[in-house]
Each structure stands twice: as structure tokens, then as C-alpha cells.
Amino acid sequence: MKKPISFVVIGCGTWGQAHAEIFSTHPYSRLAAVCDVDSKRAEQLGREYSVPYYSNYDEMLDKEELDAVGIATPDFAHAAPLMAAVSRHKHVFCEKPLVTEKDDLERAVEAVGTAGIRVMVDYHNRWNVPFVKAKKRLREGELGEPVNGYMRLTDIQWVPKEYISWAAKSSILWFLGSHTVDTLSWMFGDRVRRVYAVSRSGILKEQGIDTVDVYMSILEFEKGGIAQTENGWITPDSNPFINDFKFNLLCTKGMVNIDLSSSNFFEIYSADKVEHPDFLVKPRVYGKPTGFSYESIRDFIERLYRGEDFVVPFEDSVNVNRVLFAIIDSATKGEPVEISY
Ligand SMILES: NC(=O)c1ccc[n+]([C@@H]2O[C@H](COP(=O)([O-])OP(=O)(O)OC[C@H]3O[C@@H](n4cnc5c(N)ncnc54)[C@H](O)[C@@H]3O)[C@@H](O)[C@H]2O)c1
């Protein structure tokens, strides 16, 4: 057997902990070290896995023997560690989105293109079972060609208010709109050529979080398909699921309908409340982390180890960024924006 891939993790918050758990337990990988600007977080995770911990990733990347880097810093803080890893010729598993600034996107495309390494962004709906099954049927041609689609992916207000501390430096577009654009582009099997978007702000600003409340966008694909998207951070906390997640794709010979929220598929009623436990995203089964958000990390490790193509090609994640920049431009200008590739 080949030597396991040696990983370090940058960013030891919720998602960095998921990276660390999978890198340290998968037979094809090992965890070499972790880093967080918050030295207490780095120390806590480093001690948990008995690996060295750092508060400066340049120091870690220079000192440790490693093959690949997991980046799980906040949305706006992916570009610098990405460039630091790529310039040292290390493979990268990056949380979504790839970057949030146009200049950083061009720099990343150039650097990845010349560094001889492989990068995948964690667009993990590509491991989300209903989408995987629908995509297979679309590939097999049974449903015909996609004509029009709809995707609503919103969060309850708890997410920008409490779950993440950096909501004002990101937006629902980066946080969930990135998944929406990736999922729709993947299901249509096509690139977006034009967007028309509108946004509204005020509810979160009034509560001291300076970010957009909601984006609604129309995406026109190159082969003629059209889709409507909705990404908001203002769903009331009483919503039974963190996400309100709905998807519909009408095709020339059929239709796909996916409702990953507000269903009564699985409910547990106790004396004073009803719960909808997670069984799709990150559930534990007999202690083992399962669900699509862990499968994407495992799949990255396995394909990197075997030298196989990634499920999310780097180019697709770059294209997601181009669409998101166009959505922001369109919502700002109040007019459609064409995308050039
Ligand atoms: N794949 C998904 O669907 C999914 C789900 C949740 C989060 N995420 C993404 O994962 C990333 C992290 O999210 P999270 O929920 O873990 O956030 P978090 O706030 O829990 O953790 C981020 C950590 O990064 C650290 N950090 C910030 N700047 C750093 C730097 N320059 N160097 C080292 N560490 C730094 C922070 O101190 C913090 O501990 C985000 O981009 C988020 O969008 C992805």
C-alpha cells in the first residue's frame, strides 16, 4: 500500500474539526498538524488528535512534512491560505466558496494552473443522495433535457446571529448561494451565461449584522435552460430545520422534486417538543461520522490517493465564483449581467 497522504488543517472551527476527524481516521490519510489564528482553538484540536498545533500557517507549512492542506477558515479568509499552500505545491481541499474577491480568483486560477497540484472545493451536495440519484437519471437520458429549475436554500437567523461570528464579513450568497449555483450548474450540466439578480437588506442590519438579507436570482444557462434561486439568512428561528431547502427541475421528459426540509420524514416527539434529527448532513451512526458532508472529504482523499478525477473539478468551482460575482454586480446595478469565461 502507498504511504497515506499527510494533511494539515487551517482553521479549527466547526468545519476544520470535521476535516481533522476524517483526515485522522481514513486509512489513506493522516493528520500531521493543525493551525488557527486563535491559538486556544489550535491547541485544543492539536491536543485532541495528538498533533503539533500552530497559530501561523506559514510556519506550519514550512516546518511540517505534508502533502495536502484542508482549508476551513471563514469564507472571506480562504484566499491567503490557499495561495500559501499552492505556492508550496501542496494539494488543497478548500471549504466553499473558493474565494470572495475577483482579484483573488484570477490569482488562484493562475497559481493552481502552474503549480502541478490538485484543488477541490467542498461543494458537498454532489454527495447528497437525492441529488446523486437524480443526476444519474439525468445522465442516463430518461428525463430528457433540463428546461427550468428552482432552488431555495436559506438559513434560519440563528446562523448569521449566533452560529458563525463572521456573518457581516460574508453573506448568504457566499455561504449558501455558492452551493445553490454549484448544484444547479451540475444538475443542468451547463454553464451560466447571464444572471439577473435582486437583493434586499434591512432585517439583519437592524440587528447589527451588516449583510444582505436575501438574494433572488435568475440564471440563464448556455444551452438555454433557466433557473430561479433564493438564498436568504432571515428565515425565522422557529423553522423546524436550519435550512429551508427545496429543489425542482423540469425537463423535456420528466421532473425532479427534492424537499430536504419541512417534511415529516423523521420526527421524534418528546413530552414538550418535536424534533427533526439530522440523518443526511452530518449524522453519527454507531459513533461513525456519516452523511454527505463527511463523504465529500472522504471522496477527496480517496481520489487524490488513487489519482482519479475529482467529483467537483476545479474549473467548476471557479465558474461558481464567476456566477456569484455576476449576481452581486447584477443586484447592485439592477440589470442583467453577462458572464465571460
Ligand atoms: N461545506 C459546507 O457546506 C460548509 C458547512 C459549514 C461551513 N463551511 C465553510 O467552512 C468554513 C469554516 O466555517 P466554520 O463554520 O468552521 O467557521 P468557524 O468560525 O467555526 O471556524 C473558522 C476558524 O478559522 C479560524 N481562522 C480565521 N482566519 C484564520 C487564518 N487566517 N488562519 C487560520 N485560522 C483562521 C477562526 O479562528 C476559526 O476558528 C467557511 O468557509 C464555511 O462557509 C462549509
Describe this structure in a few short sentences.
Helices cover 37% and strands 25% of the residues.
Structure, described:
This protein has helices at 14-25, 39-49, 57-63, 79-87, 102-115, 129-139, 158-163, 172-188, 203-206, 292-306, 314-333, and strands at residues 5-10, 29-35, 53-54, 68-71, 91-94, 119-121, 146-155, 192-200, 214-221, 226-232, 243-251, 255-259, 268-269, 274-275, 284-285, 288-289, 337-338. The protein is of the alpha/beta class and 341 residues long. The protein folds into two domains: 5-121, Rossmann fold; 125-288 and 310-338, Dihydrodipicolinate Reductase, domain 2. Strands 12-11-7-10-9-8-17 form a seven-stranded mixed beta sheet. A six-stranded parallel beta sheet has the order 3-2-1-4-5-6, sandwiched between helices. The longest helix is centred in the last third of the chain and has 20 residues, at 314-333. The chain is globular and about 50 Å long. The chain binds nicotinamide-adenine-dinucleotide (NAD). Nicotinamide-adenine-dinucleotide (NAD) binds next to helix 1.
How would the blueprint of this fold be written?
Layout lengths: L4 E6 L3 H12 L3 E7 L3 H11 L3 E2 L2 H7 L4 E4 L7 H9 L3 E4 L7 H14 L3 E3 L7 H11 L6 E10 L2 H6 L8 H17 L3 E9 L2 H4 L7 E8 L4 E7 L10 E9 L3 E5 L8 E2 L4 E2 L8 E2 L2 E2 L2 H15 L7 H20 L3 E2 L3
Parallel strand pairs: 1-2, 1-4, 2-3, 4-5, 5-6, 7-10
Antiparallel strand pairs: 7-11, 8-9, 8-17, 9-10, 11-12, 13-14, 15-16
Helix pairs in contact: 1-10, 4-5, 8-11
Bound molecules: nicotinamide-adenine-dinucleotide.
The site of nicotinamide-adenine-dinucleotide has 27 residues, from helix 1.
